[in-house]
């Protein structure tokens, strides 16, 4: 069978199959992006981690001190009981991304959480206040 015959034979079935495959691919991709990559487990257990410190991710071109308010969050994770029982606070990655430059010295950023094998149920608070001290804050006043 030549390529031309192959393409013409059962043309509508091939087109419908291709469209269905694309629809399934987009649905799965969208679900992974929204759900953090793990399927929703209806009877999943939860585990709460209190007072997790927040790491600050910054660009190398924008170093300098920053102050977080608050500097710790409470995270509720959902997942299978065996995975949650093995999870340690060090395994839960909590961070804010400051790699994007900000036009002001004070801003709010969303707290991001990564935990392998679990879904994030909630983060409290969801946002933190980022304060970058201005250079004048670091200078000591000159004595007369």
What does this structure look like?
The chain is an alpha+beta fold and 144 residues long. The protein has 2 domains: 3-35; 45-134, RNA Polymerase Alpha Subunit, Chain A, domain 2 (Beta Complex). It is built from 4 helices and 9 strands; from the N terminus they run ααββββαβββββα. The chain has helices at 3-8, 11-35, 81-86, 135-138, and strands spanning 45-53, 55-57, 67-69, 72-79, 93-97, 106-110, 112-114, 119-124, 127-131. It has a 3-stranded antiparallel sheet with strand order 1-4-8. It has a 3-stranded mixed sheet with strand order 2-5-7, with no helix packed on it. A 3-stranded antiparallel sheet has the order 3-9-6, with no helix packed on it. The longest helix has 25 residues, at 11-35.
Mean pLDDT: 80
Radius of gyration: 24 Å
Corresponding CATH architecture of the largest domain: Beta Complex
Q: How is the biggest beta sheet arranged?
A: 3 strands, antiparallel
Enumerate the strands of the largest sheet in spatial order, edge to edge or round the barrel.
1-4-8
Fraction in helix: 25-40%
User: What does the overall shape look like?
Assistant: elongated
Secondary structure category? alpha+beta
How far do the termini sit from each other? Answer: 96 Å
* Uncertain runs: none
| CATH class bucket of the largest domain | Mainly Beta
Find the CATH topology of the largest domain.
RNA Polymerase Alpha Subunit, Chain A, domain 2
Task: State the helix count.
Answer: 4
Strand content: 25-35%
How many E strands? 9
**How many domains make up the 3D coordinates?**
2
Q: Provide the succession of SSEs.
A: HHEEEEHEEEEEH
